[in-house]
Design goal:
The structure holds 2 protein chains of 2 kinds.
Chain A (H helix, E strand, L loop, with lengths): L1 H41 L4 H6 L11 H8 L3 H32 L5 H10 L9 H10 L6 H25 L4 H8 L4 H12 L1 H16 L3 H6 L8 H15 L2 H36 L1
Helix pairs in contact in A: 3-13, 4-7, 4-10, 4-12, 5-7, 7-10, 8-9, 10-13, 12-13
Chain B lengths: L1 H34 L2 E3 L6 E3 L3 H9 L1 H33 L5 H9 L6 H11 L6 H8 L13 H29 L3 H9 L4 H29 L3 H6 L13 H10 L4 H25 L8
Classes of the chains: A mainly alpha, B mainly alpha.
Chain lengths: 287, 296
């Protein structure tokens, strides 16, 4: 009897604790989500309506804001630049990174530890330590203010992390398969390409997702390397729009531009949410 | 024959990565320590070896540097308690299977996935004097007298940016702590419950000690993040870093020195100092949090 009563009391106590906790969690969720909902609602208003009705959703959505942002404010061009730079960079990072990681994980050779350590220790260096020397180097090689320079920098700066992730993955794969392939007369490269790379798909996805977010959102390197309007990536375009629109006060267009920037991020996030949370913590927990 | 074949393979596989990485990453990083020893203005050969003079000027005669560094420390000083208290509270709640835990986690992490620039632009409008979310909220609840131009006021500009930085990054720490907590066996909590432990007691005596390694990591990340802050401050204050350098941080100062004043040697010296400070702070926090790891 006594035990049973204690049980229901505990249950009541549990609920009494849970309610304020849920309230706090919901309040925090609102703080996170509300600015973004507000952003969408404002992106459909005229500048006049933003001043007179900043809170409530509009009754006359201005889809024109999105068209203006895409065309007149050149967010469309920035979007195109970001797609080009991100996709080419990711292709080379994953290709170059995965063959290097495979060699480091699979073969025993002199100097392996040195090369491996050199790659991994790169994660310690902040971008800004080398930013001036990199700028001077790119300028001497005529690689400033073009896709080629920016992509090269992105690939070089992403290799540390990518090789770190992929070496870990390749180490877990069974190499008997590779041996069998070699005995059947495959070259090392076709063993890698046809047998090992498909097996390493989860690792490639993890590295790919994090490189996507890193490069799609990247700002400091793009700011330093790109200077002409035509080559701006999305973060540069949006930052520039903020500074220009401060004078032109066409807020709705700027907000529409921001929504356009976030859409691909949101889509990738929704698709890969599980891999992202796992990837964020996997390294930390194993280390 | 087979052996040579293998050697060629290794070289071919490693060469592209090693060459790109050495030229465009390692070389600039290493060169920074060398360029910092020169007075170097502009792209011309106007370059003079001055030894440690840049460091001396920076540390002894440059009030802006100290101001910027103090702002980075304000960032760290506000973010650290908030991330530890709020982050641990939320992640503990999520780990004890509250309703909707995985949905909350997904929502909280999302800001961390957006471009820092987009976050900065969005928040510069939350803080906007005329139609910003914050001022209209204050108006709506009758606190209009507190409405102000948050980013224009010297006293509020820096805290306002710190709030954005926390809004942006807190979800990452929650996911990190949560993953650590989920790897703690539930039997530990059951044992504590049988012994009559309250939530606070099981948090204090089970979660914290078993989470210590993750907490250390979180603190290191936070140190690195707050000393490296750039895009958020630069965009949110339109590159001017507010009235009279009120939001200047080490890296916004470095950027201005290098790319608007073309003061390359001096800017690089600042880069080296910032790097050494990050290393130093990381080592100090590791030292302070040193404790026997609890195995389970």
């Amino acid at each position: 009897m006594g035990i049973k009563r204690g049980g229901s009391q505990n249950k009541l106590k549990k609920i009494l604790i849970l309610i304020p906790v849920e309230v706090i969690l919901i309040a925090y969720a609102i703080i996170v989500v509300y600015p973004m909902i507000w952003l969408i609602s404002v992106s459909l208003k005229t500048s006049y309506e933003i001043f007179t009705n900043p809170w409530l959703p509009t009754l006359k959505p201005q889809w024109q804001n999105f068209i203006d942002a895409w065309q007149r404010a050149e967010i469309g061009r920035c979007f195109f630049n970001s797609v080009i730079v991100t996709s080419i960079s990711m292709f080379f990072i994953l290709l170059i990174g995965s063959i290097a990681a495979y060699a480091l994980a699979r073969f025993v050779f002199r100097g392996r530890e040195i090369v491996h350590t050199a790659f991994i220790s790169g994660m310690m260096f902040p971008v800004f330590l080398g930013i001036v020397p990199l700028y001077l180097l790119l300028s001497r090689l005529n690689m400033l203010d073009n896709y080629f320079g920016l992509i090269t920098a992105y690939v070089a700066f992403s290799l540390s992390f990518t090789i770190f992730v992929l070496t870990g993955f390749f180490k877990t794969l069974p190499y008997e398969l590779a041996e069998a392939g070699l005995i059947d007369g495959c070259s090392h490269f076709s063993v890698f390409w046809r047998i090992m790379l498909p097996l390493a798909k989860p690792g490639l996805i993890t590295a790919g997702i994090f490189n996507f977010f890193g490069i799609w959102n990247e700002y400091p390197l793009a700011l330093v390397i790109i200077s002409s309007n035509e080559l701006r990536t999305l973060p540069l375009g949006i930052a520039n729009l903020l500074m220009v629109e401060h004078y032109e006060t066409n807020w709705g267009v700027l907000f529409a531009g921001l929504v356009i920037v976030m859409i691909p991020t949101l889509i990738v996030y929704l698709f890969f949410q599980r891999q992202i949370t796992e990837g964020l913590t996997a390294g930390a927990l194993k280390g | 024959m087979r052996k040579r074949d293998q050697q060629l393979t290794i070289i071919a596989f490693l060469a592209p990565a090693v060459i790109l990485y050495a030229i465009f990453f390692l070389f600039p990083m290493a060169q920074a320590f060398y360029i910092a020893l020169f007075r170097w203005r502009g792209l011309s050969t106007n370059k003079e070896f001055v030894g440690l003079q840049n460091f001396r000027t920076l540390l002894l005669e440059d009030p802006i540097f100290w101001k910027a560094l103090s702002h980075n420390l304000v960032f760290l000083g506000i973010s650290l308690p908030v991330v530890l208290i709020v982050g641990l509270f939320v992640s503990y709640a999520l780990s004890r299977k509250v309703w909707g835990a995985s949905m909350y986690r997904a929502v909280y992490l999302f800001p961390n996935m957006i471009s820092v620039v987009a976050v900065a632009v969005l928040w510069s409008f939350v803080y906007n004097m005329q139609f910003g979310l914050l001022n209209s909220f204050l108006k709506a609840i009758g606190l209009e007298r507190y409405a102000t131009g948050w980013l224009g006021e010297p006293s509020t500009a820096l805290p306002a940016v710190v709030v954005v930085s926390i809004w942006y990054s807190l979800g990452f720490y929650i996911v990190l702590f949560l993953a650590g907590m989920q790897s703690i066996p539930t039997s530990f909590y059951e044992a504590a419950a049988i012994d009559g432990a309250t939530h606070w007691q099981s948090f204090r005596h089970v979660t914290i000690p078993l989470l210590w390694e993750i907490l250390k990591l979180g603190v290191i990340y936070l140190v690195i993040h707050t000393l490296n802050i750039f895009g958020l401050v630069y965009v949110i204050t339109c590159g001017q870093c507010g009235p009279n350098y009120h939001t200047e941080t080490m890296l916004t100062y470095l950027y201005r020195l290098a790319f608007t004043e073309s003061n390359y040697g001096y800017a690089t010296a600042l880069g080296v100092v910032a790097f050494l400070l990050i290393l130093g702070f990381a080592l100090i926090s590791l030292r302070l949090m040193k404790r026997e790891a609890v195995e389970f």
